[in-house]
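Hi all, posting the design record for the shared folder.

TITLE: backbone redesign
STEP: 1 of 1
STRUCTURE INPUT:
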C-alpha cells in the first residue's frame, strides 16, 4: 500500500498527511478550502503548528504530498474532518458523512478506510458502515474499516504522532490489523488493536477525564474565593500526595476536544452521566466568573487589555475558546477593549487586534486569558508607564511580575479583588 488519501487538512489531517508523506507514502490531501489547497501546493501552510511548515515544504518539494479539493483512488483513505456540536450539544456528523461519501467513487476491493475524527460511540457501526455497504461493499471483507482517534497535543503534534500509543478500533479483527500496518510506517509508540466502539469511547473518556478534573479545580477556585483561601497553593500542596493530580484552573475549557467530546457521551447516555454534565456546567460557567471579578476591578468606562484569544498557549486555534466568550461578555457590558494575541491573525476573528503597546496604552487592567510564552515575562516598564492603572488579572497563572508598582491578581489571591474600590479608575 503506497497511496494514501487524507480527507480534511486541519490541525490533525495536515500533520498526519505530512507524516505519512515523509515516511514512504504518496499522499493526496483533500480539503474543501481552496485557498488552503493552493497554499499547501506552494509548500506553505494555513495553520500554526511547531515544525509543520518545514515538513510540508519538504514533502511538497519531494512531490510526496499534494493537495486537492476532491479525492482520488488510493490504497488507504483517512478521514480527519471536524465533528462539531449542534446548538443542543449533539454531535454534528455531517462532515464525516460527506467525507465518507466523497471517497466511495474511488474505492476498490482491499482498500483501507480509517476514521480519525472524534465521534460518538457506535458511529462506525451505525453511521459509517451503512454508507459503505449501501455502495455495494462488504465491510470487513471487501473494504477494511477502522477508527483510529487522534491523541495529540497542539504544539507537539509532530512529536506525539510518532511517540504516542495509537488505539486501532477495527470494525472486525482483520480491519484492525490492516490499519495497524499503515501506522507502523512511522509510529514508534505502542499500537493497540481493539473494537471500534471501545476505541470511540476510550478517546472520549480521555478528554472527559481531563474536563472533569479541570472542573474540580475550577470549583475549588470558587470555593476558595468565598473562604478567602489561596486555591493555587491548595492545588500545589495537594499534588504533593503521590496519588493526587489536580489540574490547573482557568477561564474555561476550549478547543475541539475537551469542550466538545464529553457531550458525545452525554448524548448517548444522559441519565447515566450526571458527573460529566455537571463538569461541563462548571467549566462553562468560568467565563462569566472571570467577567464578574473583572467588574470589581474596572468600571464600565474603563479600558481592558485582553491578552490572548486562543484556547491554549502557543497555538493559533480559537475554536471553543473561553477567551472568546469572555470578550463577548465584556463587549455586552460596554467595556472598551483592546486585544493582543501574537499567535492569531486578523482574518481569523471578527475582532480588531492590537499591538502590545496599543493594547496597554491607557488601559486599566491587563486580562490574561491564554498562557502564550510571550506573556510570561511582560515589559513591566511599559506596563507601568503606559497603563492608566497598572493591574494584571492573570487567569492562567503564567505571568511573572516583579514590580510592586503593578498590582497582580490570579486565581490564588482572587478573593482580594473584592476589596478593590471602583475609584481606582
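Okay, here is what came back for every position:
SEQUENCE:
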Amino acid at each position: 500500500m503506497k497511496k494514501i488519501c487524507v480527507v480534511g487538512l486541519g490541525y490533525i489531517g495536515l500533520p498526519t498527511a505530512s507524516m505519512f508523506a515523509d515516511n514512504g507514502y504518496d499522499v493526496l490531501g483533500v480539503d474543501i478550502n481552496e485557498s488552503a489547497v493552493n497554499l499547501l501546493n506552494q509548500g506553505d501552510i494555513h495553520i500554526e503548528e511547531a515544525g509543520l511548515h518545514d515538513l510540508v515544504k519538504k514533502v511538497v518539494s519531494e512531490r510526496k504530498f499534494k493537495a486537492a479539493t476532491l479525492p482520488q483512488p488510493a490504497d488507504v483513505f483517512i478521514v480527519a474532518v471536524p465533528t462539531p456540536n449542534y446548538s443542543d450539544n449533539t454531535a454534528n456528523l455531517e462532515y464525516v458523512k460527506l467525507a465518507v461519501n466523497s471517497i466511495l467513487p474511488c474505492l476498490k476491493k482491499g482498500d483501507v478506510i480509517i476514521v480519525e475524527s472524534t465521534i460518538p460511540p457506535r458511529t462506525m457501526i451505525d453511521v459509517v458502515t451503512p454508507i459503505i455497504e449501501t455502495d455495494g461493499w462488504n465491510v470487513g471483507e471487501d473494504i477494511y474499516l477502522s477508527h483510529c482517534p487522534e491523541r495529540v497535543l497542539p504544539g507537539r503534534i509532530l512529536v506525539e504522532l510518532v511517540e504516542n500509543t495509537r488505539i486501532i478500533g477495527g470494525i472486525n479483527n482483520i480491519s484492525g490489523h490492516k490499519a495497524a500496518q499503515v501506522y507502523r510506517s512511522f509510529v514508534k509508540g505502542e499500537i493497540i488493536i481493539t473494537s471500534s466502539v471501545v476505541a470511540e469511547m476510550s478517546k472520549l473518556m480521555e478528554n472527559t477525564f481531563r474536563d472533569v478534573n479541570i472542573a474540580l479545580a475550577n470549583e475549588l477556585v470558587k470555593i476558595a474565593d468565598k473562604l478567602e483561601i489561596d486555591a493555587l497553593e491548595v492545588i500545589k500542596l495537594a499534588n504533593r500526595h503521590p496519588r493526587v493530580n489536580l489540574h490547573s484552573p482557568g477561564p474555561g475549557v476550549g478547543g475541539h476536544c475537551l469542550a466538545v467530546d464529553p457531550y458525545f457521551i452525554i448524548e448517548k447516555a444522559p441519565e447515566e452521566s450526571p458527573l460529566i454534565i455537571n463538569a461541563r456546567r462548571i467549566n462553562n460557567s468560568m467565563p462569566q466568573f472571570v467577567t464578574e471579578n473583572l467588574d470589581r476591578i474596572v468600571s464600565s468606562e474603563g479600558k481592558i487589555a485582553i491578552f490572548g484569544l486562543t484556547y491554549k498557549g502557543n497555538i493559533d486555534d480559537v475554536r471553543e475558546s473561553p477567551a472568546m466568550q469572555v470578550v463577548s461578555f465584556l463587549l455586552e457590558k460596554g467595556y472598551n477593549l483592546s486585544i493582543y494575541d501574537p499567535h492569531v491573525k486578523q482574518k481569523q476573528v471578527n475582532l480588531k487586534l492590537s499591538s502590545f503597546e496599543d493594547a496597554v496604552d491607557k488601559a486599566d487592567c491587563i486580562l490574561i486569558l491564554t498562557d502564550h510564552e510571550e506573556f510570561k515575562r511582560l515589559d513591566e516598564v511599559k506596563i507601568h508607564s503606559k497603563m492608566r492603572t497598572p493591574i494584571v488579572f492573570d487567569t492562567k497563572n503564567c505571568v511573572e511580575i516583579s514590580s510592586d508598582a503593578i498590582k497582580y491578581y490570579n486565581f490564588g489571591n482572587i478573593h482580594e479583588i473584592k476589596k478593590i474600590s471602583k475609584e481606582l479608575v
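COMMENT: Residues 367 and 393 are 5 Å apart (CA to CA).
Let me know if anyone wants the other runs.
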